[in-house]
From TrEMBL:
InterPro entries registered for this protein in UniProt: Acid_CoA_mut_C, Cbl-dep_enz_cat, Cobalamin-bd, Cobalamin-bd_sf, MeMalonylCoA_mutase_a/b_cat, MMCoA_mutase_a_cat
NCBIfam families associated with the record: acid_CoA_mut_C (TIGR00640), acid_CoA_mut_N (TIGR00641)
A Pfam family per the record: MM_CoA_mutase
Gene3D superfamilies named among the record's database cross-references: Cobalamin-binding domain, Methylmalonyl-CoA mutase
The protein, known as: (R)-ethylmalonyl-CoA mutase
Family: Belongs to the methylmalonyl-CoA mutase family.
GO molecular function, one term: metal ion binding
Domain B12-binding: 530-659
Cofactor(s) the protein needs: adenosylcob(III)alamin
Organism: Micromonospora marina
Subunit structure: Heterodimer of an alpha and a beta chain.
Top-rank taxon: Bacteria
Keywords: Cobalamin, Cobalt, Isomerase, Metal-binding
Length: 663
């Protein structure tokens, strides 16, 4: 037939982002998904693993096994992939600050299976820059983190040439508010920083930079505006080709090809009328598959109920089947690029390319992406863009079906089962992981462990590639927390800018004036200059977008806001609340650890003699858990359905008035 390809294209790699509870439970889930036709593995690690803590660390409390699988040592990695031949598998690991460590564990298990490392294929995400801007699982300062990334790239170039050592990740930039232009510009600025670091490290000869470039992959977000998303991906490819040719002298066009995988937009899914999430996911999938010249190499889809809690295996299966229907039932893979020669698409692409080039040049003129992170420029830009997006949604100019328009609904049979509609993590998981890591430490050669850690610390103080010392630590039985702890001693632990300074909130919001009047009046009645709000992020949850937007809107309403950023213990939050003499504590928890993190803060306030201080909570919190929190003493619980920020701030004033017995 005219216009068809001579041979049907192969489908993209189909993955399901998976991991929970324990290595053994996740291994069972992997096997089931592979039996259903999944063609690659995508490993989700829990927050302690991602931030370099063992399960028995204070900050890990309530977080173990919740948003992924805990991997504390070589034994856990063996259990995770037991019976799964790694030489035949394409494995993506969403891990950043400790990427070198997890790759060392993975490679060691592969070698134990008899696999040749040169045959192992997969990806370590390993993009640390976006962690400072949006996701929050950084550990070390930017320069030290980029050094670890460069070391992994140099190592894999020699030992694991089929491995993608870094996955430049614009996914979370979009979630944090980035426009398509910012997403492309900021992600490419990160890629330039990585490649410059590799080039300048002296570990890779200039003539091999093409080999480095061809193993750099990207991980992007696809939103529901799928025509714009197609243009974005074509723009990404055009600029990547230009940069790698002109800046790094890569002459082979195959090495310059833009290679990317996708997770479509999870934070765009809604708690209200969650059945609408199915069509959102399908449309977002089309944005990265319709255009053959810019088609994703790998795709993983969220489940319809991710705004409610942890998806069940059946929910993940449904998302996998969406991909399979598109790839195998439709005729999409039988045709050349559908948009070649399109005047509309060409104009859209040219517009994004021009804007992204301006953003990239601005960052490079500042001295590069590390400077742009450390000065707070990138974070402030994202906070401001997200505030603009929130404003459009609240005003109704951006329609979200079932949330700010067409809100009338029949009861959903999908959620009729209540808590049974999501996966529940057994609290015993954390106790088992804690006991397991303590047994592991007791059974190993302590002298070998200390020798390996001493070698790691010594090498970290030089320019030596740290992969060799890391592999020694793996074989000696070092734990995730010990590996990261040794490097913390050398590099320190970083606190990223919050991006709140100068961010504009709700200009033009007519309802904000009334809230400002209530804030001023309440402060006057309490005899204080201004109402003071502490916004706290307990535990290891680094998704701070919501907390930052609440902080911006509260400040615009006249509150004095105390916000110290992410990753705080209950004790630190309580101490800040007492020292700053705040009127209200607002806790943000999106990792599912609310039933552990929030009571710890409540208990701490009572012990400090401030049990009268009202506490509110926001996050992805099932109805039954919300009721438990209210019973424990929480004044209000806010979930994603509470999208009107000014209304939330107004309710915070009401909470303060109630707590102080004001009429």
């Amino acid at each position: 037939m005219p216009g068809r390809l001579p041979e049907r294209d192969r489908p993209w790699v189909m993955r399901t982002y998976a991991g929970h509870s324990s290595a053994a439970a996740t291994n069972s889930l992997f096997r089931r998904n592979l039996a259903k036709g999944q063609t690659g593995l995508s490993v989700a690690f829990d927050l302690p693993t991602q931030t370099g803590y063992d399960p028995d660390h204070e900050l890990a409390s309530g977080e173990v096994g919740r948003v992924g699988v805990p991997v504390s040592h070589l034994g856990d990695m063996r259990a995770l992939f037991e019976g799964i031949p790694l030489a035949e598998m394409n494995t993506s690991m969403t891990i950043n600050a400790p990427a070198m460590w997890l790759l060392g564990l993975y490679g060691t298990v592969a070698a134990e299976q008899g696999a040749e490392l040169s045959r192992c294929a997969g990806t370590t995400q390993n993009d640390i820059i976006k962690e400072y801007l949006s996701r929050g699982t950084y550990i070390f300062p930017p320069a030290a983190s980029l050094r670890l990334t460069a070391d992994v790239i140099a190592y894999t170039l020699r030992e694991m040439p089929r491995w993608n050592p870094v996955n430049i990740c614009s996914y979370h930039l979009q979630e944090a508010g980035a426009t398509p232009v910012q997403e492309v510009g900021f992600a490419l600025a990160t890629a330039v920083a990585v490649l410059d670091t590799v080039r300048d490290s002296g570990q890779v000869p200039a003539e091999r930079m093409g080999d480095v470039v061809q193993r750099i992959s990207f991980f992007v977000n696809a939103g529901v505006r799928f025509v714009e998303e197609i243009a974005k991906m074509r723009a990404f490819g055009a600029l990547w080709d230009e940069i790698t040719r002109d800046r790094y002298g890569v002459e082979n066009p195959k090495q310059r090809r833009f290679r990317y995988g996708v997770q479509v937009n999870s934070l765009g899914l809604t708690e209200a009328q969650p059945e609408n999430n199915i069509q959102r996911i399908v449309l977002e999938m089309l944005g990265v598959t319709l255009s053959r010249d810019a088609r994703a190499r790998a795709l993983q889809l969220p489940a319809w109920n991710e705004a409610l809690g942890l998806p069940r295996p059946w929910d993940q299966q449904w998302s996998l089947r969406m991909q399979q229907v598109l790839a195998y039932e439709s005729d999409l893979l039988e045709y050349p690029d559908l948009f070649a020669g399109s005047h509309v698409m060409t104009a859209l692409v040219d517009d994004i390319v021009a804007g992204a080039r301006v953003e990239l040049e601005k960052v490079l003129e500042m001295g590069g992406v590390v400077t742009a992170v450390e000065t707070g420029y990138l974070k402030s830009a994202l906070v401001a863009s997200l505030a603009d997006r929130r404003r459009r949604m609240e005003s109704g100019s951006d329609v979200v079906v079932g949330v700010n328009r067409f809100t009338e609904t029949e009861p959903s049979p999908l959620t009729a089962a209540g808590a049974e509609a999501i996966e529940q993590v057994d609290p015993a998981v954390e106790e088992a992981a804690t006991d397991g890591v303590r047994r592991w430490r007791a059974d190993r050669d302590a002298a070998a462990v200390e020798e390996a850690l001493a070698k790691l610390r010594a090498d970290a103080a030089t320019t030596a590639n740290l992969m060799a010392a890391t592999l020694e630590c793996v074989r000696a039985g070092v734990t995730t927390g010990e590996w990261a702890g040794a490097l913390r001693q050398v590099y320190g632990e970083y606190r990223a800018p919050t991006g709140l300074a100068g961010a504009a909130g709700a200009a033009g919001d007519a309802t904000l004036a009334g809230v400002r009047e209530r804030v001023v009046a309440t402060a006057r009645e309490l005899g204080s200059g201004r109402l003071r709000l502490l916004v706290g992020k307990p535990g290891l949850d680094g998704h701070s977008n919501g907390a930052e937007q609440i902080a911006v809107r509260a400040r615009d309403a006249g509150f004095e806001v105390v916000y110290q950023g992410i990753r705080l213990t209950a004790g630190q939050i309580v101490a800040a609340a007492v020292e700053e003499d705040v009127d209200l504590v607002g806790l943000s928890v999106l990792s599912g650890s609310h039933l552990a993190a929030v009571p710890a803060v409540l208990d701490g306030l009572r012990a400090a003699g401030r049990g009268d201080l009202p506490v509110v909570v926001g996050g992805i919190i099932p109805a039954a858990d919300a009721e438990a929190l209210r019973t424990a003493g929480v004044a209000r619980v806010f979930t994603p359905k509470d999208f009107a920020l000014t209304g939330i701030i107004d309710e915070l004033v009401t909470v303060i008035r109630e707590a102080n017995a004001l009429d």
